[in-house]
Amino acid sequence: MTQTTHRTPDTTARQDDPFPVKGMDAVVFAVGNAKQAAHYYSTAFGMKLVAYSGPENGSRETASYVLENGSARFVFTSVIKPTTDWGRFLARHVADHGDGVIDLAIEVPDARAAYAYAVEQGAKSIAEPYELKDEHGTVVLAAIATYGETRHTLVERSGYDGPYLPGYVAAKPIVEPPAQRTFQAIDHCVGNVELGKMDEWVAFYNKVMGFTNMKEFVGDDIATEYSALMSKVVADGTLKVKFPLNEPAIAKKKSQIDEYLEFYGGPGCQHIALNTNDIVATVRTMCAAGVEFLDTPDSYYDTLGEWVGETRVPIDTLRELKILADRDEDGYLLQIFTKPVQDRPTVFFEIIERHGSMGFGKGNFKALFEAIEREQAKRGNL
């Protein structure tokens, strides 16, 4: 049985919001080779290198590359030679988990107030509020822990106009980005947690950040013949920051969540969804650059038009590019998922084009999970 709760975005400032947010600031990855990761996301995802920190400008321990596409910002950091606790943490994180997300940074209007509220509500502190300054101004940062070894850095940057943070310098693009932007923003970031832990982390976001439950998916709509999972979505009041949380469910075989937890070595960020205004152009551009997307059988499209209705993209084009479609009471969406972007079957990406719908493709869950299971079977992990 599936239950869903619909919420309408509140675009006005909520005076009573105890934890106001401005949006996602950055998704920060710990990787084995940040230089090569920056090149891959520049060429394959069409992102633009905008800032850098490394030995050339005083960072002896780590190298970090900052890439952007619209408001979406990714930071790739690797260790050159670990000499501090931070460097040793990064080196161990990559050894234990492979390339993965270490920080889902959130921009807030007041980092000190956000941190104080979160800790008062029970959040584990990683870094008390501190300032970074340079000629471009001042940034206030603080950090709290969430599932696994993931953190939320709280970023107050209204008094800063530099390329990213103090300590970073502006960088030239690695390659010229495509004429048409491949995506514009981060739509949502999905976390995978252990069996029995989903509700615990939903309650964490409810209490610590004042997030409320947006959607819930359980039962047959989120299961196949072989595997199952449960998912709940928490979001801030304006729906600028959305975090679906998944846990495995008991089934005949190993689910995609089980596989992720096994190969990642614990809970973590499973995938990042990216908003695009033209999913057809985005998929064509990324495919041409070598990005691999999950396949969908032709049979999915035989009856798609009967229940999804008319969409901006013709069914034949959706079929050609293996793009999924779903409709709810508010409109429809188009979506497609990449295969894992590293050798471990862990982190992947979603491309999503929304037309009114604020859902997550409930009607596509079975088709998506079956596609993932086909890849699991190839890897011998089903």
List the helices and strands and how they pair.
Blueprint: E1 23-30, H1 34-43, E2 48-53, E3 62-69, E4 72-79, H2 85-97, E5 100-107, H3 111-120, E6 125-134, E7 137-145, E8 151-156, E9 169-170, E10 185-192, H4 198-208, E11 212-217, E12 228-235, E13 242-249, H5 256-264, E14 268-275, H6 279-288, H7 299-302, H8 304-308, H9 315-321, E15 324-328, E16 331-337, E17 348-355, H10 365-379
**Broad shape:** globular
Major beta-sheet overview: 9 strands, mixed
Residues in helix, %: 10-25%
Mean pLDDT: 90
- Uncertain runs: 1-14
List SSEs in N-to-C order.
EHEEEHEHEEEEEHEEEHEHHHHEEEH
Strand order of the largest sheet: 6-7-8-5-1-4-3-2-9
The helix/strand class is: alpha+beta
Beta-strand level of the residues, as a percent range?
25-35%
Based on CA atoms alone, the radius of gyration comes out at 20 Å
Per DSSP E runs of 2 or more residues, the count of β-strands stands at: 17
Number of helices: 10
- Quote the distance from N terminus to C terminus: 25 Å
